[in-house]
Amino acid sequence: MGCERSLNKLVLYWLPKRALTALVGRAARLRTSKFVIPWFVNFYRIDLSEAELDLVCYHSLVDFFSRKLKQGARPVSDDGVVAPVDGTVSELGAICNGTLLQAKGSEYTVASLLGSVDAAKRYLGGDYITLYLSPRDYHRIHMPVSGTIVNWRYIPGKLFPVNSSGVRYVPGLFTKNERLITEVDWEAGRIAVVKVGATIVGSVRTPYGPDFSGALSRARKTPCEGKAALRLDKGLEMGHFELGSTVILLFEPNSVESFCVKTGDTVRMGQKIAE
């Protein structure tokens, strides 16, 4: 067990993650990558009946990975807070003493996640939920509530994998990886939607945030932020991953009564996750 743990940590820390991400991202945008799509579909057992287009209409692997779904494939609950993505609930619960649980025995702070002590203050004593997107999942990100996107913050960082190995062996994983934070004002206060980058994640594209740049050029960027005033109804698209990752929702105190899901549950975009 000790040797396995050491090997996992060695691979996680010494793998040239940014160079690998840049290489795979570039290859996945080539038109020739469309020939990989059938293998990708079979390997991850993706349900093509939900895809908006026929398989032959996707011109690259990235094009397919960030595919849209047929209208009505993800009904949006009228009640409560809904899942902004398809994925698996990694962790959820109350934000106690300013910390969130990454995995058993591993915690991180709201301030380090948001890159700002001041921004973290409004979420202290609130609640959070972490959703992991696997390669087989639908990778567009939608509004968990009806509200107004008021600001965004991009924080550069590492590109550790966000799968079970990364979560287990990299302390403070979500505070070390690069991330794009979007804050939304809604009827019960404010929600932070934290989109975490990872190994092989080409980019997070949004209509309101920073312009896309390649993985290698992003390594040289400093944190940046901006204002927005974009009103969107619950379930409308707010961005998408070009390759998969993790989304964390932070809620202000007293804005969530209870969660309707638990750790390990699989959720689909539009499904009610909290009262």
The assigned structural class equals alpha+beta
Placed side by side, the strands forming the largest sheet appear as 11-7-8-9-13-5-2-14
| Shape summary | globular
Counting structural domains, the number is 2
Report the helical percentage. Answer: 10-25%
User: How many strands in all?
Assistant: 15
% residues in beta strands: 25-35%
Most strands sheet:
8 strands, antiparallel
Given the structure, what is the number of helices? Answer: 9
Average pLDDT confidence is 86
Radius of gyration: 18 Å
List the uncertain runs. none
Cα separation of the termini: 41 Å
Q: What order do the SSEs take from the amino end to the carboxyl end, as H and E?
A: HHHHEEEEHHEEEHHEEEHEEEEE
Describe this structure in words.
The chain has nine helices and 15 strands. It has 275 residues and is an alpha+beta fold. It folds into two domains: 64 residues, no CATH class; 194 residues, no CATH class. Strands 11-7-8-9-13-5-2-14 form an eight-stranded antiparallel sheet, with no helix packed on it. It has a three-stranded antiparallel sheet with strand order 6-12-10, with no helix packed on it. Strand 8 and strand 9 form a beta hairpin. The longest helix is centred in the first third of the chain and has 13 residues. The protein is globular, with a radius of gyration of 18 Å. The model has no long low-confidence stretch (mean pLDDT 86).
